[in-house]
Write a structure and sequence with these properties.
345 residues; alpha/beta; Arginase, Chain A; two-stranded antiparallel sheet; 10 helices; binds N-[3-({4-[(3-aminopropyl)amino]butyl}amino)propyl]acetamide; binds zinc ion
Length: 345
Amino acid sequence: MLTIYNDRHALHHGKLEMFRGELVPCFEVPARADYVLQELQQRRLGPIEEPSAFDDAAIARVHAQRYLDFLSGAWDEWVALDPANATRDALPSYWPIRTFRSDVLPASFPARMGLFSYDAGTPLTSGTWTAARAGACCALTAAARVLQGDRAAFALTRPPGHHAGVDFFGGYCFLNNAAIAAQSLRDAGVERVAVLDIDYHHGNGTQAIFYERADVQFTSLHGDPHTEYPYYLGYADERGAGEGLGFNHNLPLARGSGFAQWREALATALRGIAAFKPGALVVSLGLDTFAGDPIAGFTLATADYLRVGEDLSRAGLPTVFVFEGGYAVAEVGANAVNVLEGFMQ
Ligand code: SP5
Ligand code: ZN
């Protein structure tokens, strides 16, 4: 399988994230992608190519312009607040929740930081915009190659994307790579696109982006938001709205669920995808369903990921894989490549 990779991902390197009242070392680190790259090379999964250049228009098909303007200038604004900020990452401290206005654009940088985010676990660093933008180009290139006839392609990107919405970051995500890929497939003439999100965490950003649309179906398997991040979305009764009613499918599973249960949910998801008759599939490929993941709660084993790839392959669809979460750094490579290898067999 073709992989699209760019080493600028490493320019996004957060130091600390807020967790239960203290700043702890980031889980989402450059080594994650390095391990996947190494495993792809060792196992000779296929060619590894650089992304093509895309202008901001392809990204603006999904994200609000005022959010992109904010993100692209955020680091410089942060350092302008205080030159000492150059040694620490930017984290939000204020959020405009219920009863506040979200149509205002305060001059204060910390105020806009909160306007465009929803957690304090997602540090913005000097290279975040460059890395995220290069990542989106990886996803767009992978989608373009699948359109040109590759059966599948893998966008090896970070930071991840599925928690990012039209105008917000969070959950380690800034630009929604999977949504950008799906929209690009639509724009290239694929009438119906399915997005399947198998990261441990509900893909709240992707869901929100396509919630009122019937042309992009969203299906997610994830830890039950009653107990698992992102808590405020991802429940089974979220079925879509307006024209999109019936095109959103959440399959929450209890923390502690194992492969047998998970695989049954995957079969349910794949039946729904087949009924939609999409022209292409985008897979948000999170590997934090792994038993050894430090921040998640399912118990999949490395060998299970081969079966995951086989199951996905049987959908018989042109498929764009987009790398999302997975924080057991030493194993994330074997787990990711097992999915891709299982798919190609
Ligand atoms: C893309 C993705 O997987 N984002 C996940 C963001 C999760 N952020 C919340 C992390 C909560 C950390 N819990 C640590 C538990 C340590 N025992
Ligand atoms: Zn995740």
